[in-house]
Design a protein that fits this description.
The chain is an all-alpha fold. The protein has helices at residues 7-20, 29-35, 44-61, 86-95, 108-111, 117-122, 138-142; strands at residues 27-28, 71-72. 45% of the residues lie in helices and 3% in strands. A two-stranded parallel sheet has the order 1-2. Helix 1 packs across helix 3 and helix 2 (29-35) packs across helix 3 (44-61). The two termini are 21 Å apart.
């Protein structure tokens, strides 16, 4: 499964979430993906395995009016985006007050944005799972 069948609609949901991330906050690819229900016809476990990657594909293709720089990986690090170097993303985040440690990581306990349940439900999205609010690898969440 390389992309959702209706990637345009799926990407629109991703961009809606990313547009809502406030300045000075970040979300992870997997954190965004966990909010979006599986597309029709996609089995849940299969979806869990690819959803963060699908968010990565969407972010790689987004226009510059989407605050792409607020999306980082589950380790709190910047992932490369075509056309924009990691130094640009870091600079944009630092300009918003996000602090990186010596290893180039963002403390997700401080800077992770979690939308309210009301905001999510009003948009047909899923509430933040309890295990998504603590930084763990997606592999650990599947076990």
């Amino acid at each position: 499964m390389s992309n959702p069948a209706n990637s345009s609609a799926y990407n629109t949901r991703i961009y809606e979430i990313v547009q809502a991330i406030p300045q000075g906050k970040v979300m992870t690819y997997g954190g965004i993906a966990a909010l979006i229900p599986p597309p029709v016809g996609v089995e849940r476990l299969s979806y869990v395995r690819v959803r963060a990657r699908w968010v990565g594909y969407a972010m790689a293709a987004c226009s510059d009016d989407v605050p792409w720089h607020r999306v980082i990986n589950a380790q709190g690090r910047i992932s490369q985006r075509p056309g924009h170097g990691a130094h640009i993303q870091r600079l944009l985040l630092e300009q918003e007050g996000v602090v990186f440690d010596r290893q180039g990581r963002v403390d997700l306990k401080i800077y992770r944005w979690e939308p309210t349940t009301d905001w999510l439900l009003a948009r047909g999205l899923l509430p933040v799972p309890a295990d998504e609010s603590s930084p763990k690898s997606s592999h650990q969440r599947l076990l």
